[in-house]
Specification:
Elements (H helix, E strand, L loop, with lengths): L1 E10 L3 H8 L2 H7 L3 E8 L2 E10 L2 E15 L4 E10 L4 E12 L5 E11 L8 H27 L28 H24 L1
Amino acid sequence: MAIEITEKMRVDVPLETAWAFVTDARRVAACMPGAEIVEEIDERTFVGKAKVKLGAITTAYKGQVVFANIDAAARSMRIEGEGRETGGGTAKGSLDVKVSESAEGGTELTFDVRVDITGKVMQMGRGMIKGVSAQLFKQFSANAKAQLVAETSGGPGTGPSTAPGAASSTGPDTDEALAVGALLGRTLWQMVVDFFRRLFGKADR
């Protein structure tokens, strides 16, 4: 099953600050619930893992992530990853990132994701997976904004990671693991709301 998602976030920090963030694998992983960088192979290649809980379905992935096609002048890059799930499923995909000036002021980050997945997580269906992904991006966006704003404000512990062996602050066994009934609940509710909007929209015509 192929899933494609495009998300954007705006943050009130300079372009250079946002670019430094997206090119730091450990800082990015620390903002994603359930994700963790466990090994640094070289400056652009990492081993990561993530634990995902979707209702009764729990999956744990481990695989390699490569920061490729980094264009500092254009402030664009691609992250390529491939992982295997403990139950035999797989996930392979890419994330294109673009950092640019926002028309509203500050900096805009655009994320274009494409991932092909196999295994038991496919039981959730494309709509549910995309809905949960959108909720997870909201969590990531909130965490990333908090870190970036704190950094520009000179808050403690907000600078780039320095120890190659240091673990991400968010591991797959923490309370923030990609869980969760709350995400499913919000996703289901949004699907119901969207259904009735479409239904009554047709009735009004």
